[in-house]
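Q: How would the structure tokens look for this protein?
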Amino acid sequence: MLAQGLILFVLPALLVAAAAYDAASFTIPNRIQAGLLAAFVTFSLAVPLGTEAFAMHVLAGFVGLAIGFTLFALGYVGGGDAKLFACVTLWLGLSSILDYAITASLFGGLLTLMLLALRRIPLPQTLAAQGWIARLHDHRSGIPYGIALSLAALTILPHTDVFARGLG
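A: Here is the predicted structure in token form.
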């Protein structure tokens, strides 16, 4: 029951929160990543995941961290995005990293194209008065990639071993 709650409610809620924070402020608070880590540890004990499977998920998290911080160092994503990518790969495991990275890239590309197109259209005054919308619309702003990362995670999650274990 605990594992089901974590996989069906807590994980998705944290991912939605990450996307919302990123859209509103171009940041993803560390408490969201801490929540993702704590929820995974709790999940691994509730299932129980087992030592070998747990180690493989931790390895996936480190691979995700290496990928995320490489992208951060190259200036492609922010630090919060890099940490979110690592936390999601911890949850999804090694077998899903490639699917997740491809899906996140596709969603990130679509998000970028949509924002670039919307930024060419003047904002109505009522929307421009909202600070977070004005920042999101500003052509000098970056892309809140946490939205794409979260959406990709929610898309991939039902097709993962961890999801099946959580419902099993």
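Residues 2-167 form one domain.

The chain has a mean pLDDT of 95.

Upvote if useful.
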